[in-house]
Amino acid sequence: MKASEQWFSERVQQPISMTRWGHYGTPVLLFPTAGGDAEEIERHHLVASCRHLLDAGRIKLYSCDSVAGRALATKTGTPAHRMWLLNQYQQAVAQEVVPAIHADLGGHRDPIVTAGASIGAFNAVAMLCRHPELFSAALGMSGTYRLRALLDDQFSDDLYFASAVHFVSGLDGPQLDTLRCRRVILASGEGSWEDIGESWALADALGAKGVPNRVDSWGPDFEHDWPTWRRMLPQYLEELC
After folding, report:
1. Tens digits of residue pLDDT in 199-214
2. Any idea where the domains of the chain sit in the sequence?
3. The CATH number of domain 2-240 is 3.40.50.720
4. Residues 145, 186 contacting (CB under 8 angstroms)
5. Please, are residues 117 and 49 in contact by the beta-carbon 8 Å criterion?
6. Rounded distance, CA 151 to CA 233, Å?
7. What is the CA 191 to chain-centroid distance, rounded?
8. What is the pTM of this model?
9. Spatial separation of the C-alpha atoms in residues 84 and 86, rounded to whole Å
């Protein structure tokens, strides 16, 4: 069962769409790649790869537009604007998308699993680390966790607070205590266009703060592309959901 909705977000000053697949199960928020919309994951057959989990009521799959990722990919506006939008987008996910998921679940506030590939992985892990009270686990596939190359090598507080590889080192107190009860899986191939070093850099930051995580290498036969993520996603959701 598929359903979609759209609303105007004051936080990012543009519309956001969210699409849902499934009828019951653990809620999974799957972020698109850099410029993807809410239905990108269906067009590239990630939804189909999880059909057995959807049909069995194991998962309920959600996706929302990659508003900030689109700006990063197209280099829209100044680097400062892109960093601001990335931070605002993550706030919109926590304060708009997550309540929309809860409403769709009939008011149930079940912890949500996050997942994504490439820049989608960046957002999936960042959202878990920023809001461990809302999310139970994160799956990052072929993640790009250091974005300064997309930002003309500039840096700001907005990027610091949106980037797990940076802000996790400063976490403390109840937020960190809760995060230490969560799980992060970082999966990456080592074929064309992959950089597993991105995953290891994030794993080092998480591990230094005692956050449970692991890096899985899929080896040189797996490239930074949709066929890799179609193999990864159902395998790890079987483990997490």
Report:
1. 999 999 999 999 999 9
2. 2-240
3. no
4. no
5. no
6. 29
7. 22
8. 0.96
9. 5
